[in-house]
Amino acid sequence: MDTLDFVPGPMPKYTPDRDLIGYGENPIDIQWPNGARIAVSFILNYEEGGEHHILNGDDRSEAYIWEKGGESTEVLNGRHLMSESEFEYGSRSGSWRLIRLFKEFGWPMTLYAVGTAFKKNPEFARACVRDGHEIANHGLRWVNWATIDDETQIEMIKKAILMLEEASGEAPVGAYIGRGNIRTPELVKIAHDQLGYPLLWESDCYNDDIPYWRDTEHEKDLPDDEKNGLLMVPYNYVNNDYKFVASSPGPGFPGAFVYEDYLKNEFDQLYREGGRMMNIPMHSRILGKPGRTNALRNFMKYISEKEGVWVCNRRDIANHFKTNFPYVPGKLAVKKE
């Protein structure tokens, strides 16, 4: 049999199925608030203190996503002075620099916050809520979840929700675990249901420029009017500042000017198309460095001078979408009558 003609049967272990079609040639018209042409979502990944570390009971100290980059510098069964210092820069200095920048513009952002990281810096956690930023769940620890079983993931997600609420004063209504597996988005929904905490959105996907609904496996046997679905607000890596420190195949943003220029180009294209969202992923220990923060500021000034730009958090995007396109089982989005 030609492998190109082979269509496998159901594979429950690997659900959900893939969707290679999406909205197709004619995406829905989202109609952002006040006639905005684009929704811009700034996201700060706050991980410092939640990474691999001997003092956290791990067998290594983290060497992933820092200035020298690459796991080849990893230290097993010991401390890693330079990597530790880079992470500390994020929590001690870079995070506050970015908070001040967003206060300057009066714009909100979403925090992808690791539970144990926020617990170790409650002053920053509270400042984020004070300044109107959204707290979202980035997991209990910033470690690889790919081989963790479902039940353990669910318990870790629930612990993270409660930890983030305690540290910041705000319970997350959205999540991006980031280092999970194909089951993780569904497990996030199950964890919220078990706690009785609402889940508004999930962002463990990179497959679109606009939100969409997906059905959930654990609701498949319920009557349609009892299903809630899972609202996906897509994220991306293309604008992720981690490219400043990526070691293989090489940095995607060798200089701050390249980063600034790319952001402007992506913004211009999405703005021209209209009805899209733009993700700008950030890290305190990376974009919180002075020269890169200045490049981000230049971009923020650039879009602040455009008409019809809605800078918002992901909760705002999800609420707008859910109001105008309520969940209909089996559909990506159906306009409310």
Automatic annotation (TrEMBL):
Listed SUPFAM superfamilies: Glycoside hydrolase/deacetylase
Domain NodB homology, residue spans: 81-312
Example GO biological process: carbohydrate metabolic process
Superkingdom, taxonomy of origin: Eukaryota
An MF annotation (GO) of this entry: hydrolase activity, acting on carbon-nitrogen (but not peptide) bonds
PANTHER family: NODB HOMOLOGY DOMAIN-CONTAINING PROTEIN, POLYSACCHARIDE DEACETYLASE-RELATED
Name of the protein in its database record: NodB homology domain-containing protein
Organism the protein comes from: Pichia californica
